[in-house]
Amino acid sequence: MSPRKRDPKARTELIDIAARLLAEEGPTSLSTRRVAGEAGTSTMAVYTHFGSMSGLVREIAHEGFARLEQCFAGVAATGDPVADIALYGRAYRHTAITNSHMYAVMFGGASLAGFELSESDRQYGRYTMAGVVECARRCVEADRFLPVEPLLAAHHMWLAVHGLVTLELGSYLVDPCDADTCFETQLVALMVGKGDTLDAATTSVRTSADRFESEVVNAPRERKGA
């Protein structure tokens, strides 16, 4: 008898369900029976796709970073690298909001539902930084940023946007300092802090907003290796 083919749609559904249960109901909600029941399938499906519940939890984080990378892939390199790096920030925020059930798992504690993530699992998503680092390098070469190690500059961007998104998802940002207001002004402040002029940074951030729908929200998604 030939082995049963794995349905990639079923795999993604199981990951989404498990991530949602963790985010909405906490670790005690995560069990093979519960996940399979929510998906309308048998518990064997979990083991077929992931080998174990630990494997499923690990794949939640991996899938979340894959979706972030897909979103980043839509950002085009243009003659305005500051607009490009601002657009990476918008892509990060968009991915977090549209996949909020995975976001907590991707950046959660060392233990998820009693299943430990290894150090390599916790560092797994760093590959998504490659495009941001390259963009930061272009910002320095264009004299828009002060001379700084691009990897460090990219991390500064990550730290700032990640912090805002975390507060936004927790509903901590309210009028008059709502998430949209804070985000737009934060992007400008980040660019100025790296050495750009206020006028140039404001223009570039506005340009990134104009590009957001076409390059991030409505860009075709095709996972590498799919």
Produce the secondary structure layout.
Elements: H1 8-25, H2 32-39, H3 44-50, H4 53-72, H5 81-98, H6 100-106, E1 111-112, E2 115-116, H7 119-123, H8 130-141, H9 150-169, H10 179-193, H11 198-217
Antiparallel strand pairs: 1-2
Helix pairs in contact: 1-2, 1-4, 1-6, 3-4, 4-5, 4-6, 5-6, 5-8, 5-9, 5-11, 8-9, 9-10, 10-11
Describe the fold and architecture.
The protein has 226 residues and is mainly α. It has a single domain, classed as Tetracycline Repressor, domain 2 (Orthogonal Bundle). Helices cover 66% and strands 2% of the residues. The chain contains eleven helices and two strands, in the order H-H-H-H-H-H-E-E-H-H-H-H-H. It has helices at residues 8-25, 32-39, 44-50, 53-72, 81-98, 100-106, 119-123, 130-141, 150-169, 179-193, 198-217; strands at residues 111-112, 115-116. It has a two-stranded antiparallel ribbon. Helix 1 crosses helix 2. The longest helix is centred in the first third of the chain and has 20 residues, at 53-72. The radius of gyration is 19 Å and the shape is elongated. The protein starts with 7 loop residues before the first helix and ends in a 9-residue tail after the last helix. 32% of the residues are buried.
